């Protein structure tokens, strides 16, 4: 009897320890990290560091298995290899060499992947340009890349033509991946619709006639001297400085990420992974598509996310995994219930930004066994992960149990002044003050280039900006950490939760939006004398919606005097004309996610004698609350224009009926 009781006691103790410390969850993450590190070390040892070699290995193992499905058409690993060989030969014939940079401004498609693979094959560096940007932001992004040529989809030609002189002044050669016959067809169709107007064929770019090139392969010797710290791609990210910055995704980080995510998601060659996120972001490209080059799975790629097609695609293509951002999941939860909701075979959804109020509803309604939520940054030096299967996991962006904390002591949440964004330090020691359980602070990640998992590469061609993201003497003298600019907190069980973005950046529709960038654009509209932009919380919405506080010219609105006397004087006709001009400007010049959803027309001058941060904090607190804001407000309507905002519109938002 005694041995049985001893076994029972041991089992009981084991269940208690597992319940309290979740060692199994910890071990899953440690195992994935160890396997990724082993792959990394082997690649270094064998001079086999190029990310492209991972794709090539799959071509050798399973050449005729399906690697990619796009809009009903399947492509085998061999198909993609031969096509990328042809594109690579075209690049070589047009002067692209090892380590050259080539900018890519394209939509999700097989051609995006083929172009990307062709450049990696040659040990060249693709720079993924956000296909929603235009004007000065586009020019800046291309200037930072300092590339030889820009490859684009023809649909994006108008955005390029708008800044053609400046782009050509940077030395760019322009080529479209869209076949010539398709481009000509679009023009002939337009001519037939309106024969009164003569439409000239564009002549500012050339065509990549890759289908006429050789399909012969390229030796691995071309990539033999590729090192883990060499860039595999440049991926742009918004920051607090206004314009996009090009984060360097090197071969080492890509190797670690693709291997880790494949392990954590339990993706196998039989898996079908659905990707609807844009490939110009690291989430869609490196983590979404890139993991298939380590796992051999099939990628189901969508041109863009569609609520109506999502579950139908999952069913039609036997999807086992899909990638998300929080907003995507909210759209799906808010859609009408359908018999398709549980007819799929999805086992796991992986991504970031799944808010607590959506998580449980999403997991239950669509019967998704596992939600893998993570927190990472393209330019960051660390990551948080939470493979969530039960209620305890809901809402957490990461979990760091005792084993992970012992092996990777590389993250800190420290106290920060949320108004000034200055880190708060201990007056005696001078070191940062670490936050306790449930206390919000800024997440810092160690930037130690002696260790692979804490390496910090920074931004391409911007050394000063790269250094500005680092802080020293955090815990001990001369240590170095990366400032994420994100406000998080953890509970006593070491679950980590995202609270907000600090500084001048907010997140909306899954995109980081720079307030300085938007304010600069709006400042070009005739009638604006001062502008400040900030993010405000909207009930039932993820992230923060943009709001702009504007001071207008005297000819439109003469500001109130001191203490409100005399009152502001408004020229109603001029104000209406201004709002129409502003609507047209933001619709044309800004990506849809970056258009401020609310306007506040200020009747007094903004305080511009200092940094203006404290004043901005007050505006953030006011938000679009009609009880606090007595000045005129407008909101961005589904019709793509600003209209007056009042009690009725506010009720629509609070009730969750308004489309923002």
Number of E strands: 30
Q: Which fold name fills CATH's third level, the topology of the largest domain?
A: Rossmann fold
User: Per the principal axes of the C-alpha atoms, what is the gross shape?
Assistant: globular
Low-confidence stretches: 5-16, 608-614
Counting structural domains, the number is 3
State the helix count.
21
Structural class: alpha/beta
Mean pLDDT: 87
With strands numbered from the N-terminus, the spatial order across the biggest sheet is: 2-1-11-10-12-13-14-15
Strand count, sense and barrel status of the largest sheet are:
8 strands, mixed
Q: How much helix is in the residues?
A: 25-40%
Backbone CA Rg = 26 Å
N- to C-terminal distance: 68 Å
CATH class categorisation of the largest domain: Alpha Beta
Proportion of strand residues: 15-25%
Q: What is the CATH architecture term of the largest domain? A: 3-Layer(aba) Sandwich
Keywords: ATP-binding, Cell membrane, Ligase, Lipid transport, Membrane, Nucleotide-binding, Peroxisome, Transmembrane, Transmembrane helix, Transport
Transmembrane segments: 107-129
Domain AMP-dependent synthetase/ligase: 55-430
Domain AMP-binding enzyme C-terminal: 521-613
């Amino acid at each position: 009897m005694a041995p049985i009781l001893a076994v029972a006691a041991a089992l009981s103790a084991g269940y208690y320890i597992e319940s309290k410390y979740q060692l199994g969850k910890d071990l899953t993450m440690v195992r994935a990290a160890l396997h990724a590190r082993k792959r990394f070390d082997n690649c270094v040892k064998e001079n086999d560091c190029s990310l492209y070699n991972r794709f090539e290995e799959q071509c050798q193992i399973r050449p005729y298995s399906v690697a990619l499905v796009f809009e009903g058409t399947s492509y085998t690993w061999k198909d993609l290899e031969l096509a990328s060989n042809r594109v690579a030969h075209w690049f070589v014939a047009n002067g692209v060499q090892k380590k050259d940079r080539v900018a890519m401004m394209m939509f999700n498609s097989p051609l995006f992947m083929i172009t990307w693979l062709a450049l990696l094959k040659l040990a060249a560096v693709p720079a993924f340009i956000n296909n929603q940007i235009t004007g000065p932001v586009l020019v800046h992004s291309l200037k930072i890349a300092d590339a030889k040529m820009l490859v684009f989809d023809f649909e994006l030609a108008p955005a390029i033509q708008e800044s053609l002189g400046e782009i050509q002044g940077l030395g760019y050669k322009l080529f479209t991946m869209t076949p010539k016959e398709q481009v000509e067809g679009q023009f002939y169709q337009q001519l037939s619709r309106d024969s009164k107007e003569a439409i000239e064929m564009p002549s500012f770019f050339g065509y990549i006639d890759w289908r006429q090139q050789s399909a012969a392969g390229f030796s691995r010797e071309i990539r033999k001297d590729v090192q883990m710290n060499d860039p595999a791609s440049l991926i742009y990210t918004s920051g607090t400085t206004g314009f996009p910055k090009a984060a360097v995704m090197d071969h080492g980080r890509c190797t670690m990420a693709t291997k880790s995510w494949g392990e954590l998601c339990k993706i196998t060659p039989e898996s079908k992974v659905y990707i609807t996120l844009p490939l110009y972001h690291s989430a869609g490209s490196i983590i979404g598509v890139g993991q298939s080059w380590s796992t051999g799975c099939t990628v189901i790629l969508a041109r863009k996310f569609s609520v109506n097609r999502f579950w139908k695609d999952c069913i039609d293509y036997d999807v086992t995994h899909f990638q998300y951002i929080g907003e995507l999941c909210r759209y799906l939860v808010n859609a009408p219930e359908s018999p398709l909701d549980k007819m799929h075979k999805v086992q796991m959804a992986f991504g970031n930004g799944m808010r607590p109020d959506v998580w449980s509803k999403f997991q239950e309604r669509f019967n998704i066994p596992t939600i893998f939520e993570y927190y990472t940054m393209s330019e960051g030096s660390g990551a948080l992960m939470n493979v969530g299967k039960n209620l305890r996991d809901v809402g957490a962006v990461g979990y760091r149990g005792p084993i992970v904390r012992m092996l990777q002591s590389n993250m800190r949440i420290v106290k920060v002044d949320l108004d000034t964004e200055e880190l708060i330090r201990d007056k005696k020691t001078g070191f940062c003050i670490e936050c306790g359980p449930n206390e919000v602070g800024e997440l810092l990640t160690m930037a130690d280039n002696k260790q692979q998992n804490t390496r910090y590469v920074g931004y391409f061609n911007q050394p000063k900006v790269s250094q500005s993201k680092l802080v020293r003497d955090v815990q001990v003298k001369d240590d170095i950490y990366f400032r994420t600019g994100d406000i998080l907190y953890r509970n006593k069980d070491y679950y980590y939760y995202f609270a907000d973005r600090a500084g001048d950046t907010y997140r909306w529709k899954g995109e980081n939006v720079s307030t300085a960038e938007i304010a600069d654009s709006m400042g070009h509209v005739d009638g604006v004398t001062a502008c400040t932009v900030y993010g405000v919380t909207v009930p039932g919405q993820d992230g923060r919606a943009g709001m702009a506080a504007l001071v207008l010219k005297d000819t439109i609105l003469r500001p109130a005097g001191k203490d409100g006397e005399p009152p502001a004087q408004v020229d109603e006709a001029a104000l209406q004309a201004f709002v129409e001009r502003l609507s047209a400007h933001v619709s044309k010049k800004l990506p849809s996610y970056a258009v401020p959803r609310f306007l506040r027309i200020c009747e007094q001058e903004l305080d511009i004698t200092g940094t203006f941060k404290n004043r901005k904090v007050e505006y953030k607190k006011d938000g679009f609350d009609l009880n606090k804001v007595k000045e005129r407000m407008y909101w961005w309507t589904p019709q793509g224009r600003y209209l007056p905002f009042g009690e009725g519109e506010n009720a629509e938002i609070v009730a969750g009926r308004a489309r923002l």
